[in-house]
Write a sequence for this structure.
């Protein structure tokens, strides 16, 4: 072993001289992960990252057979599912990893919100994380259209029509988003470009910043733990925490494989721009709470159209969520902040209740 | 021009000072750089705006099916230019046509014989057989078209 070890060391030294690897190692080594009763939540960010990497890998594989045009998109996915060896597996894993990634992302974001880990000096970490959340929703929205089936076609018609609600520039932005006045093949190529090039490029940058900030500031210890007076315990990030992360990732991979095998992704009926919207049309589950809220709004609220009020309200709620670290002055001063705990629980309860209603309410009543 | 190595490690203050201490020449260079950026961004921005597609100028359309193909209490979708329209026959036998685009968020409506109403599946919007929004979120009636039957042809036109 000794000769091999010295050879490897020589390679390391050679690379380190040229690439400056030592500081990167130092950065990984210097971080400790606090150990306490909330430690479990620390794994969710890494889980989201792992599922994103699965998306990148399977997405690249799907590119090899996918054809982005209204005439060929549906057929190319059909071919992929039926003819290409393991095509169904790659697409189903892409489908399920997307969904699980959103789950992990939601849990990660709301755990950070409730544990108030956004407080100084982590405001930028929260903002970059919020940016990643928005990017993930954009990935989901643009990717949903690509198979060009009936459900995705109408979900995109509704989803893009929402842009027109924006005052003054809404109609113009709607045309830019759709590549025309209606959802057509031009929309498909646009969404394709956004989904496979623009969003990945943006995500790479924002994700890099987010990970750098997490590494720079380390994990936030919740105030309740800090004040409990119990002796502080911690484990090194590298390798202890990372190895635990890996166990979670392997488990996620097994779950993905099982979901893909037992519940493969559907393709549905090809989109027809001249057919009525099908009964039971629904968006992806993570948009369901907004979709269901719009159903409950009356046609007019005061002098405004109902959906204008609803969509502006969701927009403002999003801005508020992004700015929580700056709005929550008590946490910033290191005091307890029950109001923001209540707001966080309120948001979670709203999303859960409206999502359940979305799946249980009779769509035709 | 010689490069003078910084005598002290750059602090935020000195970097800020450096940024703020630029001369008029630098300001001009900076604005021409801004001009360069604008010269790149403007064409890219215009590129992303789709060209105006020929908005269908047709004010009337002859349907590819005849009056006998529309049974009482049924509706059929037709192409009015590049937009969908719906033609329906009321229980009393009258033919009526509307834009099939829901006034809420643009889904395509269908006739529900069980309700005797036009219905949008997306957000559960209801319209009566005159195209008037009667329940759910749609804020306006459907645009009504004029229907003329000429022999075995149906001609649908905009406006009265």
């Amino acid at each position: 072993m000794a000769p091999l070890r010295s050879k490897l060391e020589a390679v390391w030294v050679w690379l380190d001289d040229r690439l400056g690897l030592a500081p990167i190692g130092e950065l990984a080594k210097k971080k400790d992960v606090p150990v306490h009763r909330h430690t479990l939540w620390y794994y969710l960010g890494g889980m989201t990252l792992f599922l994103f990497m699965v998306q990148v890998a399977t997405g690249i594989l799907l590119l090899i057979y996918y054809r982005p045009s209204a005439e060929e998109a549906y057929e190319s996915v059909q071919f992929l599912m039926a003819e290409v060896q393991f095509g169904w597996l790659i697409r189903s894993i892409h489908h399920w990893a997307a969904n699980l990634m959103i789950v992990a992302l939601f849990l990660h974001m709301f755990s950070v919100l409730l544990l108030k880990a956004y407080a100084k000096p982590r405001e930028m970490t929260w903002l970059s994380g919020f940016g990643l959340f928005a990017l993930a929703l954009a990935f989901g929205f643009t990717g949903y259209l690509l198979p060009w089936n009936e459900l995705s076609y109408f979900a995109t018609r509704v989803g893009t029509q929402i842009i027109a609600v924006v005052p003054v520039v809404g109609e113009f932005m709607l045309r830019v988003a759709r590549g025309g006045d209606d959802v057509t093949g031009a929309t498909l190529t646009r969404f394709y470009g956004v989904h496979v090039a623009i969003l990945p490029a943006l995500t790479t940058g924002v994700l890099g910043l987010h990970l750098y900030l997490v590494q720079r500031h380390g994990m936030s210890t919740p105030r309740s733990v800090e004040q409990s007076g119990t002796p502080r315990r911690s484990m090194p990030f590298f390798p202890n925490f990372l190895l635990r992360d890996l166990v979670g990732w392997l488990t996620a991979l097994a779950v993905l494989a099982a979901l893909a095998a037992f519940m493969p992704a559907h393709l549905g009926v090809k989109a027809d721009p001249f057919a009525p919207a099908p009964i039971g049309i629904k968006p992806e589950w993570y948009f369901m709470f907004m979709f269901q809220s719009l159903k409950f709004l009356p046609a007019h609220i005061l002098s405004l159209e109902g959906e204008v009020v609803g969509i502006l309200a969701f927009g403002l709620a999003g801005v508020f969520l992004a700015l929580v670290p700056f709005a929550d002055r008590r946490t910033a001063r290191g005091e307890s902040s029950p109001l923001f705990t209540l707001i966080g629980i309120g948001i979670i309860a709203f999303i859960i209740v409206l999502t359940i209603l979305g799946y249980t309410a009779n769509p035709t009543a | 021009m010689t490069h003078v190595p910084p005598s002290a490690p750059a602090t935020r203050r000195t970097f800020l000072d450096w940024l703020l201490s630029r001369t008029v020449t630098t300001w001009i260079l900076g604005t021409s750089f801004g001009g360069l950026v604008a010269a790149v961004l403007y064409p890219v921005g215009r590129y992303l705006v789709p060209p105006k597609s020929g908005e269908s100028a047709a004010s009337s359309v002859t349907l590819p099916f005849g009056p006998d193909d529309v049974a009482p209490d049924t509706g059929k979708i037709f192409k009015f230019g590049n937009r969908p329209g719906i033609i329906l026959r009321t229980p009393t036998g009258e033919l009526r046509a509307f834009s099939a685009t829901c006034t809420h968020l643009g889904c395509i409506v269908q006739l529900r014989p069980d309700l005797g109403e036009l219905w949008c599946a997306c957000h559960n919007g209801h319209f009566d057989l005159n195209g008037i929004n009667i329940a759910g979120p749609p804020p306006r009636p459907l645009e009504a078209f004029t229907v003329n039957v000429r022999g075995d042809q149906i001609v649908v036109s905009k406006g009265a």
Observations:
- Residues 60-158 of chain B form a domain with the Rieske Iron-sulfur Protein fold (CATH 2.102.10.10).
- The first strand of chain B starts at residue 60 and ends at 62.
- The beta strands of chain B are 60-62, 75-80, 83-89, 95-99, 110-112, 117-120, 125-127, 133-135, 144-150, 153-158.
- Chain B touches chain A at residues 48-50, 53, 55, 77-79, 82-84, 86, 100, 102, 104-110, 112, 119-124, 133, 136-139 (CB under 8 Å).
